[in-house]
Amino acid sequence: MSSWTIRREIWSSFSQAINDIKDRKQLNELRKALESVKQYYNVARLLGYDQLLQQIDVAQIATLLNIISRRLLTLSLMDKTRRVSQAVPF
Q1: How would you class 67 by CB atoms within 10 Å of its CB: exposed for 0-12, middle for 13-18, buried for 19 or more?
Q2: Tens of pLDDT, residues 47-84
Q3: Is this prediction's pTM over 0.90?
Q4: Which residues contact 27 (CB under 8 A, 6 or more apart)?
């Protein structure tokens, strides 16, 4: 199995798990944790910690952050739609 196939499976599993979460607070905590990893990566790069850099795939972190951002946007749109439908009598 290629590394691309493995990554795609990981992203798919992560995306499915994220889509099951309806709690914005939980999603924001996860987003903050991933952003922290990204910041630590940048600090490690500045300090020349090459061994640590080899263990972190910053592109994968960015992809996971995008998945979380899309989910937060979806939840926001769902809430907005729900509020509009409740405000407009039929």
Answers
A1: buried
A2: 999 999 999 999 999 999 999 999 999 999 999 988 88
A3: no
A4: 18, 21, 68, 71, 72, 75
The Cα 70–Cα 74 span in angstroms is: 6
57 CA to centre of own chain: 14
Q: Are 1 and 53 in contact (CB under 8 A)?
A: no
- CA 51 to chain CA centroid, Å, is 25
User: For residues 12-48, b (16+ Cβ closer than 10 Å) or e, as one string?
Assistant: eeebeebeeeeeeeebeebbeebeeeeeebeebeeee
Query: DSSP code of 88?
Result: S
Six token digits for residue 62: 């960015």
Pairwise CA distance, residues 70 & 79, whole Å: 14
Amino acid at 51: Q
Q: Where are the alpha helices (DSSP H) in 1-90?
A: 3-19, 24-47, 50-55, 58-87
